[in-house]
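FAQ: What does the model actually see?

It sees only this:
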Amino acid sequence: MRRLLLWGPPILYMFAIFNLSSQSDPLPELTSRVWDKWLHLIEYGALAVLFCRAFVGEGLSRRHALAIAFVATSVYGLTDEWHQMDVPGRMASLLDWLADTIGAMIGVIVYAIVRLKPDTTYASR
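And it is asked to produce this:
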């Protein structure tokens, strides 16, 4: 049950991203008013937070959990761009992936600031 609570949210969130990316024009009311790069930053920042939570919950060291969450989020963004090449009306964009990756970094930083206490073991070495 613990693993389901850790991994359910990021998996469901990735499914939601995939579902939206499979549509030619998802959420047109929103995308017509908000710069799409902001949406990428927010979307992938949230995914990074969910990954951080899962990896920390699995017992990885803080440093490893944050690094793996960042890489996993960026790689998922890359696969999402690749997937969009096959969706009518969509295209893969290096700038979108860059926004995904920046969002991942922001999400990891926010998680580290909000959820993790300072690690005094490294400071004392």
